[in-house]
């Protein structure tokens, strides 16, 4: 008498075996095979136990897994048009609220505008870790109903891409990275023909609010970050 392997019995217990194979295996059990009957009992108990243990992975585990298996950026032309970007808001340059000028700020938030798109980003250091997270959203402020899903996003140091991802259906993205100098965040639009590129501030554990860096008579709304150029 030919017997089935444990992998086949596990598939039967999970309901994954092909229909014709299920019928043949049931007929095999009906023929009185005690060896396979014990295997079926074990696989049924195993399947019930595993189904009861199923749970959603924590968000930080999902993010780390995505970093290991990075989503490949869509192919884009080697030469892309760099969209000039205006810095609308910088939390390091914004005056502190009354009574909090001596406060220290751990994270950094900025809002940029380039063409019809706005880029809202925040850099936050991770607790008990030298790494940091960049959380952002790209959206069309001229036509808010426009969806910017699967937009390529990456962090670059020079020509090297450190980490990459794509936006979700709401234009949101999140990446974890090792802070270093001269990081650039790149957003690829129109199938990669255009890009928004902005600098990412390097945070330290004791970075103060730099309210005295804003020169009198100049507001952060007038600051331009990137001239138009082609690479």
Notes on the structure:
This protein is of the alpha+beta class. The chain folds into two domains: 6-53, no CATH class; 64-230, no CATH class. The chain has helices spanning 6-13, 19-30, 34-53, 59-68, and strands spanning 81-82, 85-90, 108-114, 117-125, 132-140, 152-157, 160-166, 172-177, 183-189, 194-200, 223-226, 229-230. A six-stranded mixed β-sheet has the order 7-6-9-10-1-12, with no helix packed on it. A six-stranded antiparallel β-sheet has the order 8-5-4-3-2-11. A hairpin with a 4-residue loop joins strand 9 and strand 10. Helix 1 (6-13) packs across helix 3. It is elongated and about 80 Å long.
The arrangement of helices and strands along the chain is: HHHHEEEEEEEEEEEE
**C-alpha termini separation:** 70 Å
Based on CA atoms alone, the radius of gyration comes out at: 27 Å
Please report the number of helical segments.
4
| Largest sheet: spatial strand order | 7-6-9-10-1-12
What does the largest sheet look like? 6 strands, mixed
How would you summarize this macromolecular structure in one to three sentences?
The protein is α+β, with helices and mostly antiparallel strands.
């Amino acid at each position: 008498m030919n017997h089935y392997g444990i992998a086949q019995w596990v598939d039967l217990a999970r309901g994954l075996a092909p229909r014709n194979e299920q019928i043949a295996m049931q007929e095999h059990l009906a023929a009185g095979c005690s060896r396979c009957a014990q295997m079926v009992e074990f696989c049924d108990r195993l399947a019930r136990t595993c189904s009861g243990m199923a749970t959603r992975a924590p968000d930080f585990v999902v993010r780390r897994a995505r970093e290991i298996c990075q989503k490949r950026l869509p192919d884009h032309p080697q030469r892309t048009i760099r969209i000039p970007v205006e810095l609308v808001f910088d939390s390091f340059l914004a005056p502190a609220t009354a009574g909090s000028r001596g406060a220290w700020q751990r994270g950094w938030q900025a809002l940029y505008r380039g063409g019809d798109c706005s880029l809202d980003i925040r850099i936050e250091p991770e607790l008990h870790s030298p790494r940091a997270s960049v959380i952002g959203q790209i959206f069309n402020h001229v036509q808010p109903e426009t969806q910017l899903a699967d937009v390529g996003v990456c962090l670059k140091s020079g020509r090297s891409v450190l980490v990459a991802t794509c936006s979700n259906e709401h234009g949101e993205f999140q990446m974890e990275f090792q802070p270093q100098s001269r990081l650039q965040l790149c957003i690829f639009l129109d199938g990669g023909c255009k890009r928004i590129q902005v600098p990412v501030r390097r945070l330290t554990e004791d970075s103060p609010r730099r309210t005295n860096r804003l020169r009198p008579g100049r507001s952060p709304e007038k600051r331009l970050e990137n001239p138009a150029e082609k690479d």
